[in-house]
Task: structure prediction
Amino acid sequence: DILMTQSPATLSVSPGERATLSCRASQGVSINLAWYQQKPGQAPRLLIYGASTRAAGIPARFSGSGSETEFTLSISSLESEDFAVYYCQHYKKWPYTFGQGTKLEI
Amino acid sequence: QVQLVQSGAEVRTPGSSVKVSCKASGGTFTTDAISWVRQTPGQGPEWMGRIIPNIDLVNYVEMFQGRVTITADKSTSTVYMELSSLRSEDTAVYYCARTFRDVILDYWGQGTLVTVSS
Result:
């Protein structure tokens, strides 16, 4: 199985600042990568797929980049609602796996 | 708008089984894939399997193979996930999710907490 590793585990950032989250795949996944946001007590929410395509209704301050084994989710000008846990997930080949998450905290 | 509504919380004893339902509306049930993903406290989600109802195709993740069964009732647009031989480590929130292009989880149910305890 492809192992997804996210870093850092926790990222402390102030509102209005930029956050950069990383995700590494144990083998190349091309651009078959998605990012999800999860708030406490809620289901995950799709943010990005195809490594850089925003899902419907996702604000432009969220952007994704990368390919093969190195990926980045950037959130420009953080708003209070952005503080949550973020997961990456590959879909290169079955089984599709998730990273362990990065908690974005104030 | 796609909506997925799951059945309520369950408590089971070790060795027993649980069956969770997921009723879909607003999408194209027969052609949409539906996946089951579980999440234990403080951990990342784990994909368990997916079903494409119109072709009766089901894929399971190997670690759950033999214990999980995913089925669909096209007449009621409902997908079911049954997990057997439950152990305490199966205590988790179980989610169903519409699976865009069969690989991307774009709409999620509200989650069902399954607690396994003696």
User: Anything to note?
Assistant: Chain B has no helices and eleven strands. Chain B has a mean pLDDT of 93. The CA atoms of residues 56 and 75 of chain B lie 14 Å apart. Chain B touches chain A through 19 residues (CB under 8 Å).
